[in-house]
Amino acid sequence: MMLNIIKRDYSDAEIISVGVALKAWGESQGMSSRLEEQLDEQIKKAGIHKGMVRELRAIEGRRFRVDFCWPQDNLAVEVQGGIWTRGRHARPMGIVKDYEKFNLLTLGGWRVLLLTSLDVQSGKGLKMILDALHQPSSSS
Question: How many independent structural domains does the chain possess?
């Protein structure tokens, strides 16, 4: 309903300017995209980016995407940004959707690592990924 009101009452230029402002605000708040880029840089520096896929739809028939994954190792990594700012991953429906996604991934044979901003910023998340990649998956 809100989208229809916005489309009815505002010009395309006004809608675009709001979108640009929201994107800038989200980036200034340290939203997950910045965390994901930071983790991506760490992964590349560690030399484990070969075989890695970003934003993979790993659950057939579902729109869920995995932030980072190594399909050959059945390893999925999710960066849970915004948990300190009551972002999507900290609100009830976001949590419910995340649980559904993680359960479906697990049932599909994936090993799932959930990383917080603290994990990414401290390098602890990269260490967890390295440890998981050095452990054989059950399907190997």
Answer: 2
In DSSP terms, which residues pair with 66 in a beta bridge? 56
In a domain, 138, yes or no: no
Average pLDDT, the chain: 85
Among 52, 76, 74, smallest CA distance to 66 is for 76
Q: Which tens digit of pLDDT belongs to each residue from 72-122?
A: 999 999 998 766 666 666 677 878 988 999 999 999 999 999 999 999 999
Alpha-helical regions (H) of 29-133: 32-46, 92-107, 117-122, 124-133
Q: Residue 17 is part of which domain span?
A: 1-29
Residues 106 and 126 grouped into a single domain: yes
Name every residue whose Cβ is closer than 8 Å to that of residue 104 and which is 6 or more positions away in sequence: 59, 62, 64
The two three-digit tokens of residue 103, written as one number: 């359960």
